[in-house]
Amino acid sequence: MATRDPRIDAYIANAPAWAQPILRELRERVHATCPAVTETLKWRLPSFEQDGLLGGMAAFKNYCAFMFWKEKVLRADKAVVTVLDACARMTSVEDLPSKSRFVQALRRGASLNAKGVKVPRAKSAPKPTIAIHPGFSRALAASKRAAAQFAAFSPSAQREYLEWIADAKKDDTRERRIEQAVAWIAEGKRRNWKYEAR
User: Fold this and answer.
1) Which of 7, 105, 168, 177 could crosslink 80 through cysteines, CB 3.0-4.6 Å?
2) Model confidence, pTM
3) What do you get for the CA distance between the two ends of the chain, in Å?
4) What pairing do the DSSP bridges indicate for beta strands 64-68 and 53-59?
5) Which domains does the chain show, CATH number per domain?
6) Is 71 left (phi over 0), alpha (psi -120 to 50) or beta?
7) CB-based burial of residue 65 (10 Å sphere; 0-12 exposed, 13-18 middle, 19+ buried)?
């Protein structure tokens, strides 16, 4: 059974007057298409769930939008691409895609949720390597304990120190950071040890 969230009522009531009819129509279309849908707020925006997040709507300064959660997957279906594009920017009720096309896209999204289809994530590019600063290298070589501990750190823990030292704008700042880093490393502390759970 569908549920309506009073927070969505409040969101629509607080939207600009021109946006309210668009938001109300989108909401009604979602409920008419997916009777078991559940309303909620995600990222402070009205959202709809059915076997997972289905989509959400928003009123911006000059336009409204309906965002399909699995848009990347839906774009493979040429029949719904025009709906996705139309839903990206609506300034009046006339800008909404036809009911039949919207229903088709929404049902396709609900079907993907029911099947457990995941949105493919783009692989992030590997971070470039950071060369160890010569001063830091010398300071580590002077402290066997710090050098051994630094070598035992995970690559991400090493990177935190290397970035911190490389980001120094002035030489004296870099020297202070190197001195502090060697002292902390010798104690087995990661760069952000103050914030780690104890």
Assistant:
1) 105
2) 0.62
3) 45
4) antiparallel
5) 6-115 (3.90.1150), 134-195 (no CATH)
6) alpha
7) middle
